Amino acid sequence: MACGVIMAIDIKKKLLDEWTFSWPIMNVLIGGRSSIDLPEIQISGFEEATAFIKSYGYDPEKIHDARLMHAAICESLSFIERWLMPKEWKNGLQPPDEVLMCHDPRNLLLWACDRSSAAIQRRIWSCAILRVMHTIAHIEGAFRYSDIDVARDEIIGRIQSVVAYDERGDSWIQFDDQRIKLHKLEWKIQKSRDSVLLKLLHKRANVAETIYDMLGVRFIAEHQSDVMQIVKLLQKSHVISFPNAIPSRSRNSIMDAEAFRVYVEQLRTEYMMGKISSEEFQIRLESLELEPAEADKENLHSGSDYRAVQMTCRQLIRTPRPLTTLRKNLQHELERMPVGNVFSRHVAELINVLRNISRLSGDDEFSFFPFEIQVMDKKAWDINTTGKASHTKYKKSQLRAARRRVLNEIIPSA
After folding, report:
1. What is the pLDDT of residues 250-289, one digit of tens each?
2. Which residue in 67, 69, 107, 137 has the fewest CB atoms around it within 10 Å?
3. Residue 394: what pLDDT?
4. d(CA 25, CA 41)
5. Are 240 and 369 contacting, i.e. CB atoms less than 8 angstroms apart?
6. Are 53 and 106 in contact (CB under 8 A)?
7. Closest CA to 152 of 343, 352, 333, 319
């Protein structure tokens, strides 16, 4: 009897945990909000802070990365002092000493999560510094794309780490002890050259506008409610890093997120009070069908019926500097030279020179590479592929816009 009660409690806790969302983070991922506007973040310990930073793209355990992050902390403090509050700083309004002397961003993350009354000053200053640091990181990585093959392999590898297939060939997305069955999984490995040209030409703002979907993946879920679970799981598993999401490119034309939140919270309340069973909880979620809040009108070439959660994320990609590659090649050749070779001493000296240069500049170059994730349910997928929002109609609309732009003087009626 006791074992049955314990098992029921465990099942209830698991179900409640699965359907608990951090709505501020969800608003960054799918609602277009910037991560620097978040009122708070939730990181429970040093290990999770390390995982968070690694997901962001840096490794605090590596000396070069640690130096880069410490430099960003120093620059952030200097910027705040010189530009944002020079008079107040001069008059003594400054961070606590432990914040001023901090060299590890993991401490800043943990202090930013500390809601105790005794740590208010430390928390608010840590938050301020982290916001500036985030901006500095993206300034450093902007418009410097790494080799696309390296980026593709790394990003696809991260996504594939949470994808599994069963003996029947069905695909699942899973992390820890949670699994969500997929109706379909589609990859966009790389745009063709013609697609890139067409997309650039039809853009109203600038012909040099960045192409954000050179690489992408589309998750098609069985049920509408699973769309939100997939977004949550991708963030929870660190496949995507919410500070690296591009807010202006977040779309949610699947369902009204606020209506979904209210529905799920009401359902959780009824379940906790014992008004519904676990089975009824799941059935009501699987049968949920909500309308989107409003149609996405920003992309004029996408059909108004297109239904998806669309996220453009960025991953910090490392590629070896040319000098690093040269040094490794020389090291390989040196190891193959016979003992006593007259040139070996000179090659070894050159290798040491290149190694010393690397100590100053690092072995790798860093750049943020964007990739797109779309999540939708089966019903939305059917609409998107066969209705007014189909990709064929989208391409035709792009082509008409490009024609008008390029050929307006040659073919006025284009």
Report:
1. 889 999 999 999 999 999 999 999 999 999 999 999 999 9
2. 67
3. 67
4. 8
5. no
6. yes
7. 319
